[in-house]
Specification:
The complex is a heterotrimer of chains A (308), B (513) and C (365). With 513 residues, chain B is an alpha/beta fold. Helices cover 32% and strands 23% of the residues of chain B. In chain B, α3 packs across α4 and α11 packs parallel to α13 (410-422). The longest helix of chain B has 16 residues, at 176-191. Residues 1-5 of chain B have low confidence and may be disordered. Chain C has helices at residues 13-38, 42-51, 57-82, 90-105, 115-142, 146-166, 201-217, 220-230, 232-238, 242-269, 280-290, 295-318, 325-340, 342-345, 351-364, and strands at 3-7, 346-350. In chain C, α3 runs antiparallel to α10 and α12 (295-318) runs antiparallel to α13 (325-340). The chains are: A mainly alpha (308), B alpha/beta (513), C mainly alpha (365). Chain C: InterPro entries: ABC_transp_permease.
Amino acid sequence: MDIDLLTNIFYAMVRTGTPLLLVALGELVCEKSGVLNLGQEGMMLFGAVIGFIVAFSSGSLWLGVLCACLAGVLLSLLFAFVALGLSSNQVATGLALTIFGVGLSSFIGAAWVGKPLAGFEPVAIPLLSEIPLLGRMLFGQDLLVYLSFALFALVAWVILKSRAGLIIQAVGENPNAASAMGLPVLRVRTLAVMFGGAMAGLAGGYMSLAYTPMWAENMTAGRGWIALALVVFASWRVFRVVLGAWLFGLASILHLVAQGIGLAIPGNLLAMLPYVATIVVLVVLSRDAIKTRLYAPVSLGQPWKAGH
Amino acid sequence: MSFDTASTPRLQMRGITKRYPGTLANDRVELSIQPGEIRALLGENGAGKSTLMKIIYGVTQPDEGEIIWHGEPLKMRDPAQARGLGIGMVFQHFSLFETLSVAENIALAMGAAAGTPKQLEPRIREVSQRYGMALEPHRLVHSLSIGERQRVEIVRCLMQDIKLLILDEPTSVLTPQEADELFVTLRHLAAEGCSILFISHKLGEVRALCQSATVLRGGKVSGHCVPTECSDMDLARLMVGAAEGLEASYPKVHGGLTRLRVDDLNWHNADPFGTSLAQCRLEVRSGEIVGIAGVAGNGQDELLALLSGEVRLPSTERERITLDNQPVANLYPDARRQLGLTFVPAERLGHGAVPDMSLADNALLTGFQMGLTRAGMINHGKVMAFADKIIADYAVKTPDAHTTARSLSGGNLQKFILGREILQQPKLLVAAHPTWGVDVGAAAAIHRSLIALRDAGAAILVISEDLDELFQISDRIGALCSGRLSPLAETAQTTPVEVGRWMAGEFEPVTHA
Amino acid sequence: MLLSLEPRGRQSRAMLWLSPLLAGVLTLASGALLFAILGHPPLETFKVLLIDPVSDFYGVSELLVKALPILLCALGLAVAYQARIWNIGAEGQLLIGALAGSALAVHIIDWESRWALTLVLAAGTLAGAAWGGLAAWLRTRFNANEILTTIMLNYIALNLLLFFVHGPLKDPAGFNFPESATFGDASRLPAVVEDGRVHAGIYFALLALVAVWVLLQKSFVGFQIKVLGLDKRAAGFVGFRERRLVWLALLISGGLAGLAGVGEVTGPIGQLVPQVSPGYGYAAITVAFLGRLNPIGILFAGLLMALLYLGGENAQMAANLPQSITQLFQGMVLFFLLACDVLILYRPRLKLKWAKRAALQKAAA
């Protein structure tokens, strides 16, 4: 393998891992606050279709990105109302959100399938992007990828250093105690869910405006679900999220690698790789039930109502 | 120590009423407390103590009545406002976050203005030293003992200028000796002018600590008194009215053949939050009740799980627990039940009974080996008959057997569960905290059922945190501490003080071979 | 909010069944609003969507054809969901069933024995059960979350199917279309009516309906499954074997989904194609919840879902609406159901009334 190929693989790895990173960061915050939102796939798709339509109609990619985020927030509010406001089963509500999001995005996007759009182009940072191997990966990407770096730093700071992070963690561990202490449990959780929605919407927008600038039904192909597994993979620790997202990015572009070393494997079999990798990762990481319990937010997925 | 009754009370509650669907939790409650006063709030479970405290602390708002603070009426909107006024609260179930450090826990409670966890560290050290409660701000709460966690709660309250400290059953998690240490701290605080509201149902410690007492019963104030001037009987009558069974004393007996033998039981708990058991030895004979005392979290749950079969040992170790000389330590619960073991777990809802299933289904839950199924199909007629018999024999108050377990009161559900287990005619009954959270009437009924089962020749093991209860019903008694079991003594030959020492781990360690 | 929720104290049995109806009504109302916004007259559109497709005998027969796979999958899911095992993998289990059945069927095209069909159906059912069993193994052995593993197995199954239909199972005489050879008559499910596509699979669906009903309502194993779902600790406390029950539930739901899949390829389709399922396995999730995890409820919910599928096809042709309206309505009805379910445990109250009552009481005092 020559160095150019490796440089390209690293570049594509980060590019492919970016939507996973964005969704997983959002879901991480959401789960830290104790809410399991399985609707990531639905919110991503809705973000993707709204982002595409707005960008296509207005001609502004950034307006598209903004609306993709807002679309994600909108759907997440629906989830928050049913799962938090009415304290319904979070698993079922998340599934409903995904089914609804898949249907809604296909319905809205039916007329936009296959239309061409000039998406985000890479903006290489002079000098830095010419560093061998890693330059293109870190400094030769499009603006949304740089944004994902910034958001990663932001989430890491909030969770590890800020008072807001303490509050989120407290609410996720023991909502009753947090409430007795006067912390607004439902408000914290709703905000966390909304942040998750914005990130999923953004990830969808990245798919339809930068990664493959177009709209196709189900174009996220399970990335929302993989991101959920990523959070487990990361044991709810933020630095592992970025590592995991890029590793999965690598698993998704293995056809590039295969071509590089001259292997001819049917495309459909290679396409299974990220999903197989997800299962393998889940198996390796969940084996130790006690360890998983140590890191998982204690009240994750449990409905909570004030006044108990 | 004295306080001036003529001065303005620090806190006055007037005509406080709070309704919940189906119950009147507080009914025109009056309470007043002076600066520097240690006031007891007495009452049995469900009397409305918790509701009243939550109202004072702003967790819930009263439907009627007013709160007067230093002579000024005010509305307590939320705990933040209460803390701002100098009201601190130590919850029975700690409101601590296990995955956070001591300093982080304290910083969270104090609000953003108080500073970051790091900035608070020197003050935490200073306060904890001043009141004799050693604490290390860096440590994660899950690595602390129960007593240390309580210190975190108290120090958290003392970090601000404290005017009124509310403690909800603080000694229920302490050994008698630890409780005495806590009382020293509380007297120190009161001497500095802090008012203390001490919630309890243990009459002895109320008399040791408090200058005055207010008693609640059924949501109403049933009386005020000076604890040192009242007998236990007077206080108990205020708490429960003219209930029977308060003074019941049961004759102590000697058991017959050994039914349950636990022999050098060692079990490593892989869960870092749990307790490991070491070298536990225990025998329970037919026709006797053995009581195991201990502060929660000292291995009770683990011992219970090993006895019930929820946790099993490898078959090479199956001799560690024997039932009628048959090794059972490797068997599943259903196999142990077939050999005559029945079990009343500590938690009624979610462990001993499925909350959202009917009483009939809950009767089937453990009674399925009594011929209630045929060829894999449920015989609903027999299940109903069994459930109805439990309800009738054990005076369970419920509309019918179709009612869900969740909708029964604690005492009624406990009677149902106990009846279900006793009607299976066990050779050995293991009961955990059999009267926890149960009203006095039901508790007396449960005690009578246990004694009757004992007199019918069954072996009974009771694990409880309530030392008074154990002295009342058990024939022999021991204690668990840090996963080790003390030797057993005849209840008639020992004293609560001695058992209290065992609860703190002061007993001869089992020598290694 | 003007409305407040007050705990009922116990479940309302009436709301348990009224809530799905209420959810249906709300879905229709939102649908009408959506149509109006998009410029389609609501009543006519609903006629196109829900009435026209079943206005003749052929339509009813098509309804049953669509309902069969949905019902089989949903019945299996009901067993798993009663145990709170969130099998999202009916779609993958269905596809693998179709794939395995087809792999056998194309090799025995020349057989004329009745055993051909039996073997093909058995192959599909077993393959579906194995695919479900894979998730059971991952969960019981490695503690891997079944929601995520079954979803991943769906994508893997789809890619496997695509690989085989583009590769090893492609009909050599098929002009390079991604399709298998047409199965022999002996491995086809016979039709049960003359002028419709309803096939003998309907007997399997009825059998499964009764079997699942007996399992869940009458048998002790079903009781154990429900206890496990409601209260894991209580199940452990009496010694119900969690692992065995997880295996059982996933094998049953996988097997039924596999049967649904192989029923599609041996029934209405007659060969393996990439589009074996238009999301039947996902639709079954909604159906299982809407039917309250109860076989009888699932029967009605399944027929409704099949009608939505037919309506979606019809709406595309007759009203120029995207076919994905089916999924949109699925999502909506599930959302409304979950929201309405709050009424099972809580009673809605007008806040106004409370305020008034308090004022009255004050006046009285």
